Amino acid sequence: MMRQAGRYMSAYQKLAEKHPSFRERSETVDLIVEITLQPWRAFKPDGVIIFSDILTPLPAIGVPFEISDAKGPIIQSPVQFEEHLENLHPIDLEKLQFVGESLRILRREIGENAALLGFVGAPWTIATYVVEGGTTSTYKTIKRMCYTAPHVLRALLSHLTKAIADYIIFQVNSGAQCIQIFDSWGGQLPPHLWEDWSKPYIKQIVSAVRKQCPQVPIVLYINGNGGLLERMKGTGVDVIGLDWTVDMADGRRRLGNDIGVQGNVDPALLFSPLPVLTDEIHRVVKAAGRRGHILNLGHGVLVQTPEEAVAHFFEVARGLRYDTLFEDCKSEQLETVG
């Protein structure tokens, strides 16, 4: 479940009161391990996702940042001109040992009982923060750079690509068994621009990781990806995450059966009556088909989501039996035909 650990859990809220700094929580081994394990202990999902952030590796490449409770991430020295590129350097994995150590501990803790997932941000998405100096709702500085300073933007994206590939390999070598790439803001680009400014860099990452870690599955998620599905398939990843605005049956038709899909229950449905959530899980699983589907939300768990609903999500998932579910599906189709 995306954003499996975190703000909706009372155990997390209590821990956050003692450790109010997000950077401390996401960069201290003991806290990372504890927060990561909270939902696993509570709900026993099939996947355990390290508690971290897509911006975590930035200081290790020469881009310091702070996190403000009011404004989110703040980068005091954004990269917008050629001279700013001089501040960047190859990723220093020594500065990310807290991630490696956390993954090693987590792998020992969960054993073979669940898969351990790591994750990264895609180059375009990370670049939006580095260029804009933080979060943005318009992306106008970085979009303008596509035309006014394309050589600077391409140099930044290339640097991030190498760093992110190295960071993924580091996570895998530390114990991650699957990696998810979040191109969270790729959906802010028109499809033809995503093809130019995001896809080639994701492809390079996938290629580099395949050479070093051929056995590790890679998932790609883009928020607002309805217009990008076929293009996403061309990145070479193993699984494509669908957000909740894409009809799962339509997504499966467009992608075919030779690639995995992930998703895509609407996170807001966890606020609905539990029978409604049950019906939606059944609908999504039926639409995804018998093979190659990772049941998940279509985006992150929302703040104030009832823990009872999260528990129900996992209980329903564990109780599913494909033979029964798809037999019901056949019966429904016959009734419709009759």
Describe this protein's structure:
Belongs to the uroporphyrinogen decarboxylase family. Homodimer. It catalyses: uroporphyrinogen III + 4 H(+) = coproporphyrinogen III + 4 CO2. It is found in: Plastid, Chloroplast. Its EC number is 4.1.1.37. This protein has helices spanning 10-18, 22-27, 29-43, 97-110, 123-132, 140-148, 150-174, 191-197, 199-212, 229-233, 248-255, 274-288, 307-319, 322-337, and strands at residues 47-49, 66-68, 72-74, 115-121, 178-182, 218-221, 239-241, 260-265, 293-297. The chain is globular and about 60 Å long. Helix 3 (29-43) runs parallel beside helix 4 (97-110), helix 7 (150-174) packs parallel to helix 9 (199-212) and helix 12 (274-288) crosses helix 13 (307-319). The strands form two sheets. A seven-stranded parallel sheet has the order 1-4-5-6-7-8-9. Strands 2-3 form a two-stranded antiparallel sheet. Helix 12 links the parallel strand 8 (260-265) and strand 9. Helix content is 49%, strand content 12%. It has a domain at 10-241: TIM Barrel (Alpha-Beta Barrel), CATH 3.20.20. The chain has 338 residues and is an alpha/beta fold. The relative contact order is 0.10.
Label this structure with key terms.
alpha/beta, 338 residues, TIM Barrel
Any chance you could write out the topology, listing elements then pairs?
Elements: H1 10-18, H2 22-27, H3 29-43, E1 47-49, E2 66-68, E3 72-74, H4 97-110, E4 115-121, H5 123-132, H6 140-148, H7 150-174, E5 178-182, H8 191-197, H9 199-212, E6 218-221, H10 229-233, E7 239-241, H11 248-255, E8 260-265, H12 274-288, E9 293-297, H13 307-319, H14 322-337
GO molecular function, one term: uroporphyrinogen decarboxylase activity
Pathway: Porphyrin-containing compound metabolism; protoporphyrin-IX biosynthesis; coproporphyrinogen-III from 5-aminolevulinate: step 4/4
Domain Uroporphyrinogen decarboxylase (URO-D): 117-133
